[in-house]
């Protein structure tokens, strides 16, 4: 039996309403089903997600279905999938998203032609009946470059602000270099430290055009929609980003970007926290306060001076508590 051209890592929890569409589109990526290895992880689902995974696994010559009796989180489930990668290329796919036909065939060809560590793509958001193209924030297409050169400037959207693990394809040397794994146990924001480590340590990447990945927004079970304690992982994820950058030989070059990102995301999460229960809101504020307290005070002051008034007001109290002027 031929070695698969690409391994698709597909973790899902309670995605039975959508995952049939997700899995069906994987059957339309190549003429030969053996070109794909499916690694599906049922992360503690209580619906028919696991049964659908098993059903579709029979349509692929290469398939592995794993089941976690209780949910371990997206980061851990993706890491479980990495152990089963075969072939030279792999990608991630979430259980409520889907791919246009031939997407993977195009991406495998582009990865080979460009001979880089990973390729990234645009994606399409789907909100009800509305679709919108979201472009990867990189000025060049089909040009191989250093991932480090796609991190700055700090006050503009760059590739580390486009952390979606499913928006691309990766060569297996990313696994061999220890850059593919996610921080264990994170339920949200797991892609933030992952994308920073990837861009700081991988050798080469490119942004390419390909048939679209469609990202379903507004799904009630999505962790972007819930407001329970799993959202507290945002601060832990940003602490990991800070640690990754602090250990880099060019930390001073990239710290302004980390500060800008941490402040911007903290403002967003502080506003969202207003709809949490009071105890959880206090935990969120304490976690953000401790995380912001790690940032260099002079950089915080400089970045904050370029923020708009509403964001400065949201951050004012918590920054005073950290000893940073707002």
How would you characterize this protein structure?
There is one protein chain. Helix 8 crosses helix 11 and helix 9 crosses helix 11. By secondary structure, the chain is of the alpha/beta class. Strands 3-2-1-4-9-6-10 form a seven-stranded mixed β-sheet, with helices on both faces. It has a four-stranded mixed β-sheet with strand order 5-11-7-8. It is built from eleven helices and eleven strands.
**Mean pLDDT score, rounded?**
93
Work out the helix count.
11
Specify the structural class: alpha/beta
Quaternary structure classification = single chain
Query: What does the main sheet amount to?
Result: 7 strands, mixed
Brief summary:
The protein is of the alpha/beta class.
List the helices and strands and how they pair.
Elements: E1 6-12, H1 19-26, E2 36-43, H2 49-57, E3 62-68, H3 74-82, E4 89-92, E5 98-99, H4 103-114, E6 118-120, E7 123-127, E8 130-134, E9 168-171, H5 173-176, H6 191-201, E10 205-207, E11 213-216, H7 233-246, H8 251-273, H9 278-292, H10 297-304, H11 309-322
Parallel strand pairs: 1-2, 1-4, 2-3, 6-10, 7-11
Antiparallel strand pairs: 4-9, 5-11, 6-9, 7-8
Helix pairs in contact: 1-2, 6-7, 7-8, 7-9, 8-9, 8-10, 8-11, 9-11
List keywords for this structure.
7-stranded mixed sheet; globular; 326 residues; 11 helices; 4-stranded mixed sheet; alpha/beta
């Amino acid at each position: 039996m031929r070695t698969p051209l690409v391994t698709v890592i597909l973790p899902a929890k309670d995605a039975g309403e959508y995952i049939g569409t997700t899995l069906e589109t994987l059957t339309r990526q190549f003429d030969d089903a053996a070109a794909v290895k499916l690694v599906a992880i049922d992360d503690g689902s209580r619906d028919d997600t696991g049964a659908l995974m098993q059903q579709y696994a029979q349509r692929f010559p290469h398939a592995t279905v794993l089941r976690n009796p209780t949910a371990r989180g997206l980061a851990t489930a993706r890491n479980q999938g990495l152990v089963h990668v075969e072939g030279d290329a792999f990608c991630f796919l979430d259980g409520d998203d889907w791919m246009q036909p031939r997407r993977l065939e195009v991406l495998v060809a582009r990865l080979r032609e460009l001979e880089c560590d990973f390729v990234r793509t645009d994606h399409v958001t789907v909100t009800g009946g509305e679709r919108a193209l979201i472009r990867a924030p990189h000025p060049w297409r089909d040009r191989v470059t250093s991932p480090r050169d796609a991190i700055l400037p700090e006050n503009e959207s760059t590739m580390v602000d486009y952390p979606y693990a499913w928006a691309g394809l990766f060569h297996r040397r990313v696994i061999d270099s220890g850059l593919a794994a996610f921080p264990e146990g994170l339920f949200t924001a797991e892609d933030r430290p992952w994308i920073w480590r990837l861009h700081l340590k991988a050798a080469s990447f490119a942004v390419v055009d390909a048939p679209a990945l469609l990202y379903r927004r507004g799904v009630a079970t999505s962790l972007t929609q819930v407001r329970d304690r799993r959202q507290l992982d945002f601060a832990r994820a940003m602490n990991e980003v800070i640690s990754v950058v602090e250990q880099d030989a060019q930390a001073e070059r990239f710290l302004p970007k980390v500060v800008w990102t941490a402040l911007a995301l903290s403002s967003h999460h502080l506003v969202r926290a207003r709809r949490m229960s009071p105890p959880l809101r206090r935990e969120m504020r304490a976690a953000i306060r401790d995380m912001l307290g790690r940032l260099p005070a002079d950089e915080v002051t400089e970045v904050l001076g370029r923020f708009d008034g509403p964001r400065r007001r949201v951050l004012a109290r918590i920054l005073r508590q950290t000893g940073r002027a707002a």
